Amino acid sequence: MNPFFVISLLFGLALGQTASLCAPSEYIIHVEKRECAYCLAINTTICAGFCMTRDSNGKKLLLRSALSQNVCTYKEMFYRTALIPGCPHHTIPYYSYPVAVSCKCGKCNTDYSDCVHEKVRTNYCTKPQKLCNM
C-alpha cells in the first residue's frame, strides 16, 4: 500500500471525530391534544448538528468499525413535564419531553430518538398557542 494513502486514511479517520459539530440546540416543540383548547409551545434543547460519517465505497480497504453512519444523539438528558392548558377534567393534561444536557455522535437509539429526517414540517399549532418557558 502507498504510504501517503495510509497516512491520509489515518488522518481522515482521526479528523472525523474532531470535526463533528454535535451539541445541544434550542428548539420549540408544539404540543396539542384534540380535547384541549390550546396548543403549547415548549422551549427545550435537543441534540442537533453534524457528525462525520464514512463512505462505504471503500469497505474492502477499511475496518468494519471505520464504516460508521453516526447521528447527533443524546449523551445525557432528563425529562420535564408540562401542563397543557384548557383541557377538560377527563383528559390527562400532561406532556413529558426530553431536555438535552450533552450530545454525542453515535448510533441512533429509537427508544428515545426520532432517527428519520422528515421532509415536511409538522411541528406547528392548529389551535391558539400558549408559550411554556421552563
UniProtKB/TrEMBL annotation:
Signal peptide: 1-16
Family: Belongs to the glycoprotein hormones subunit beta family.
InterPro entries: Cystine-knot_cytokine, Glyco_hormone_CN, Gonadotropin_bsu, Gonadotropin_bsu_CS
GO biological process, one term: G protein-coupled receptor signaling pathway
Gene Ontology molecular function: any one: hormone activity
Keyword set includes Glycoprotein: yes
Keyword annotations of the record: Disulfide bond, Glycoprotein, Hormone, Secreted, Signal
Name of the coding gene: Tshb
Domain of life: Eukaryota
One GO CC term on file: cytoplasm
Glycoprotein hormone subunit beta domain sequence ranges: 21-125
Organism, as annotated: Piaya cayana
Cellular location(s): Secreted
Lineage: Eukaryota, Metazoa, Chordata, Craniata, Vertebrata
Quaternary structure (record): Heterodimer of a common alpha chain and a unique beta chain which confers biological specificity to thyrotropin, lutropin, follitropin and gonadotropin.
Protein name according to UniProt: Thyrotropin subunit beta
